Please model this.
Amino acid sequence: MSVSTKTPEEIEKMRVAGRLAAEQLEMIARYVEPGITTGELDRICHDYTLNHQNAIPAPLNYRGFPKSICTSVNHVVCHGIPSDKKKLKNGDIINIDVTVIKDAYHGDTSQTFLVGKCNVLAERLVRVAQECLYKGIEMVKPGIRLGDIGHLIQSHAEKNNFSVVREYCGHGIGREFHEDPQVLHYGTPGTGLILEPGMTFTIEPMINAGKRYVKLLPDDWTVVTKDHKLTAQWEHTLVVTDDGFEILTLRSDEPADICKYQEADRQN
Ligand code: MF3
Ligand code: CO
Ligand code: CO
Model:
């Protein structure tokens, strides 16, 4: 396994790609309403990436993936394929995962949206999944090990009686969509890769309301929970800095506390 560190010039390009990916989620947020289809969401993002951002939607044709974003509704864990037949309804939750390529570098981020008014379980699952992401991010600094991050994410999920998907994980990112290392969302403290400044990777925990087991549908992309219970995911792309992290896909709607860590880091 070879894990690269990026040069300052590469990190600047990843900042640009990351910002475009974040802006795309901000853009699509207002369209997420009961009645819209995931096919329509895909077309809006596709056009925005190409025509407004002068960027490339990375998922399109990636290993044969047929669309420009992933849309994963309710019990779909990840890699849901947008479709004109899939209409959102009140009470659904949907993860929208966008990845853009700009100037040869990737920015990868996702968010789970509540559609209309959701039940208490859905709201709690979506919130805890976001907390899992933030707890993982806040650990990131040189010297910390990937097992420390995975362990914290797993502990927070299980403390809330939820489970962590093990078959899919975060990943290094840069010129390639998926680079080393694999970033597991479970694990043992004091084990795994030691982080160094300049490493760029995603954290993207998939948190299930029921058991952790998943199943791949015959389309060879769509991953669902085996028990068909709800699942939620959030993702950011980050870079390890000299004394912490910088979130390359930060949105303006994110809570003040994560922005505070980010600010403190950038002032150094
Ligand atoms: N964006 C996903 C990730 O976070 C990968 C999607 S691969 C695709 O790694 F082909 F389904 F787009
Ligand atoms: Co990713
Ligand atoms: Co993604």
Notes: Helices lie at 8-28, 38-52, 120-139, 146-159, 256-266. The chain has a mean pLDDT of 96. The radius of gyration is 17 Å.
